[in-house]
Write a structure and sequence with these properties.
The chain is an alpha/beta fold. It is 41% helix and 14% strand.
């Protein structure tokens, strides 16, 4: 959604640290925040790519980002359960079903009040193929 911007991607960091998605993620988040600090200190725009499914997780991240100060644009992506499962299977390291179930229990789409800007991108219910053609 922001081509050309550098990306702080938790999946990439997880791969670099050789951690499975179902394991504790403290080291991943710590490394991601440090990478983000480098961009924030130099006032360079970047994208944060992670599944922040709960208001609590997003609030913590937004508070961190705006402490620099930064303007925050949340992009909420929603796909069908079938597409979600297909994308998970296509990952190098699939997220375990139990972890997905825990995440869905905490899932809450962002409200407009959570950031400077919030964009909702909801996939067509007939869309399943990934990556898109």
């Amino acid at each position: 959604h922001q081509p050309g911007l550098p990306v702080v991607a938790l999946d990439d960091i997880r791969d670099q640290l050789d951690l499975d998605p179902g394991e504790r993620q403290g080291a991943v988040v710590s490394a991601a925040r440090e990478r983000a600090r480098e961009f924030l200190r130099s006032a360079r725009p970047f994208a944060w790519n992670a599944t922040n499914i709960s208001r609590h997780l997003r609030a913590s991240l937004v508070d961190f980002l705006t402490s620099y100060p930064a303007r925050v644009h949340l992009v909420y992506l929603e796909v069908t359960p079938a597409a979600q499962e297909q994308r998970n299977r296509a990952r190098d390291r699939a997220v375990p079903r139990a972890a997905v179930a825990r995440m869905l229990d905490r899932w809450a789409p962002p409200s407009p009040a959570e950031a400077h800007r919030v964009t909702h991108v909801v996939a067509d219910p007939g869309e399943v193929a990934w990556p898109p053609a």
